[in-house]
């Protein structure tokens, strides 16, 4: 751009009206460090602009500038997209950084919380607690932004009890492709509201949410069972026993659990939203494997979330690194046979991973998630009871690391041929049919609504909903 700003840059600068720190452009020598701030360093992307608006009117103006210049738009809330989709995913998009949208209000009559889309989950948790010890379902990574999390799904250990984060959304304010600032709920713009709860990246920029909340659980029992074996093969029977537990349709909904593989062993975590006496009464503890290091503690709500984050190594969430990830979803009749578990874990031992920083996480879902009809929102994985995701960091990321995770994924698909579908929160740019895997049977309706609300595909990333 040099000394001749482009029409897009001039337009965006006019919206900012001279405000400092409103927009950054590629001609800034510190653009990547100060403005772009990519999360996955393995996905190189240079936006045409990064803008930090202060209000919905700013966003409306930015959207109109992008539309007039035929440039794509994506919103960046916390910026934790595995493929940097909040920056556009490919070069040349306008990234709208929601960092200034941090407002919060709790209505003490209805216990409905209004939350700015740029607020991080850790802040949401603290603010809800301080406003009357209220809570809602969400993930345990404190640095993830509400805007992406509450529109892509928003799964966490309490999802079996309360559903997903997007199931708690009552209403939003959103800027659509025509630049209009609108409200969307079950009663106002219901079709748009349906699309935004599961695939908002293709339909608009949400500025704030109104959430229903719950009273915080008074006591929370946290179960941790760690195994430090020399091989994954030794852990295979432990996984199979854990899988038997989570596939029980009568498993108490107050219980959320994960099985996490890592280089020198594995850990099973369990979070029960109730007292220790209630937890013991469920009989869950007696059904867990034995032989490892066991820890059972009782915590309050805030401490429990911090412990869950630590168990998942989410201290890495603040670090920009080169990494790779895969995921897959499983229905109740798609559990991995024990003999196949053994083969997969043995295969894992034999691989050159190319890194010591890798995790494979199996996460139980179901419960309250399955109470919501498949077509109630655009989120489509209501029939799943188990997700897995793999995650590996390389400095730099090597081909053998990608091959390891891709190979593990292929092993799972071969063991359970019918398993299909990926969670869009674990976005995988390598998928050739990403839209189908993310939204499944809800994709045709999404495509129809995309034609209605964004026919020019202004809100676009490499795997967002398309007009067909």
From TrEMBL:
Database matches in Gene3D superfamilies: 3.30.465.10, 3.40.462.20
Keywords assigned: FAD, Flavoprotein, Oxidoreductase
Domain FAD-binding PCMH-type as annotated: residue spans: 43-216
Source taxon at top rank: Eukaryota
InterPro entries, per the entry: BBE (IPR012951), FAD-bd_PCMH (IPR016166), FAD-bd_PCMH-like_sf (IPR036318), FAD-bd_PCMH_sub2 (IPR016169), FAD-linked_Oxidoreductase (IPR050416), Oxid_FAD_bind_N (IPR006094), Oxy_OxRdtase_FAD_BS (IPR006093)
Protein name from the UniProt record: Oxidase
Family stated for the protein in its record: Belongs to the oxygen-dependent FAD-linked oxidoreductase family.
A Pfam family of this chain: BBE
One Gene Ontology molecular-function label: oxidoreductase activity
